[in-house]
């Protein structure tokens, strides 16, 4: 069983590594001290089990788990934390177990067995997992690695076949998510201007009608206006008035 350990405390990672060394067939393939590095390690090493601290700098363990739920194959997630107050949120994030530090050997053994049971079936991603808290980043896969895109930096989202092109402050990337699911999750941040396009509210400057009567949305950081479908015009005019 391939394992990734993610904890911002080196001593906590060392203890887990020592405990895991006592289990035959368990190999630690990577360690991480923050959420971003944890996701990159998981993309690179395809672990069967991820041992996650919750309170980490940047992206916390709960958000890491929500991103991991979209991985294929999906790794088993076990949270390891100093507090038991996060237990409910952990299981809402589809964790297979929840360990309180200092982790006891017998509890880790039980968690490994649960992870083995989970990975034997390789459960499919749960569409409802993480519904209680929205992500702060989108996750784009790039040749075996990951790029994390802050949601606040996204300018607009455009559907293209089975992908969505994310246009953001640093360029553009493809994510394997549907435009509808992104609208459901981030509806207060984005406006639909077309069946294949969502724009960030803070990017919308004005609507312009051309000589042919077609309406286009002008964005702050976009070189060209984007086409607006007729059914979206009235909603967008109201949004522009409220800017």
TrEMBL record:
<dbReference type="Pfam" id="PF00072">
    <property type="entry name" value="Response_reg"/>
</dbReference>
<dbReference type="GO" id="GO:0000976">
    <property type="term" value="F:transcription cis-regulatory region binding"/>
</dbReference>
<dbReference type="GO" id="GO:0006355">
    <property type="term" value="P:regulation of DNA-templated transcription"/>
</dbReference>
<dbReference type="GO" id="GO:0000156">
    <property type="term" value="F:phosphorelay response regulator activity"/>
</dbReference>
<feature type="domain" description="Response regulatory">
    <location>
        <begin position="2"/>
        <end position="116"/>
    </location>
</feature>
<dbReference type="GO" id="GO:0005829">
    <property type="term" value="C:cytosol"/>
</dbReference>
<dbReference type="GO" id="GO:0032993">
    <property type="term" value="C:protein-DNA complex"/>
</dbReference>
<keyword id="KW-0902">Two-component regulatory system</keyword>
<keyword id="KW-0238">DNA-binding</keyword>
<dbReference type="InterPro" id="IPR001789">
    <property type="entry name" value="Sig_transdc_resp-reg_receiver"/>
</dbReference>
<dbReference type="InterPro" id="IPR011006">
    <property type="entry name" value="CheY-like_superfamily"/>
</dbReference>
<feature type="modified residue" description="4-aspartylphosphate">
    <location>
        <position position="53"/>
    </location>
</feature>
<dbReference type="Pfam" id="PF04397">
    <property type="entry name" value="LytTR"/>
</dbReference>
<protein>
    <submittedName>
        <fullName>DNA-binding response regulator</fullName>
    </submittedName>
</protein>
<keyword id="KW-0597">Phosphoprotein</keyword>
<dbReference type="InterPro" id="IPR007492">
    <property type="entry name" value="LytTR_DNA-bd_dom"/>
</dbReference>
<feature type="domain" description="HTH LytTR-type">
    <location>
        <begin position="148"/>
        <end position="242"/>
    </location>
</feature>
<dbReference type="InterPro" id="IPR039420">
    <property type="entry name" value="WalR-like"/>
</dbReference>
